[in-house]
Amino acid sequence: VAEAQRIRRIPGIEEVAWREEAGGPVSAGTQSLGSAWLVGATPNLIKAAGGNLISGRNFTDIEAAAGAYVAIVNDKLAERLYPGLDPLGRIVTIYGNPFTVVGLYADAASLFSGGDSNPIALMPHATFSKVVEYDRGGMIIMIKPADSISVADAQDRVITTMRVMRGLKPSQEN
């Protein structure tokens, strides 16, 4: 988390989000999925990683800090758990815990892959760490550069910053 917070201060970086993820049981009423992809993230994940909020809203900074039981589901999960229904305001059960669906999104992969993405539920990272069984230590940092710099320039800036934070010498690998 400290690295992601430092990366946010790099000139030319527009968004920095982080997430951890794992598979887990998800259900709604009588509909059940053996496993869906569960993602604990910062509120700006969709901005940083891409995707489209179709309806509803993102979870807020306050909900993230409080570890609120709110979820944003992708279109694939909504189709499987709520066929023909609007999922907003409904309850989705994750690891036996009720979450209120506050948003519906199409993840970036489904925008280009013809809809082949997996069912996914996003939740505040603090909630994820309390509810989901997962291997800790695999945090993924998502970075979106500003339009004013190239991806290569953003990568160089981020790598340099992380090398300095980690105390790596020029001869050491990243």
Walk me through this protein's architecture.
β1 and β2 form a beta hairpin. The two termini are 18 Å apart. This protein has 174 residues and is an alpha+beta fold. It contains seven helices and eight strands, in the order αββαβαβαββαβαβα. It is elongated, with a radius of gyration of 17 Å.
Please give a handful of descriptors for the protein shown.
six-stranded mixed barrel, alpha+beta, 174 residues, 7 helices
Short description:
This protein is an alpha+beta fold. The protein contains 7 helices and 8 strands, in the order αββαβαβαββαβαβα.
- How many H/I helical runs? 7
* Broad shape: elongated
Question: How many strand units?
Answer: 8
Uncertain residue ranges: 110-114
Fraction of residues in H or I helices? 25-40%
* Structural class estimated from helices and strands: alpha+beta
Radius of gyration: 17 Å
The largest sheet has its strands arranged as 1-2-7-4-6-5
Most strands sheet: 6 strands, mixed, barrel
| Helix and strand run | HEEHEHEHEEHEHEH
Q: Estimate what percentage of residues fall within beta strands.
A: 35-45%
Distance between the ends: 18 Å
Mean pLDDT: 86
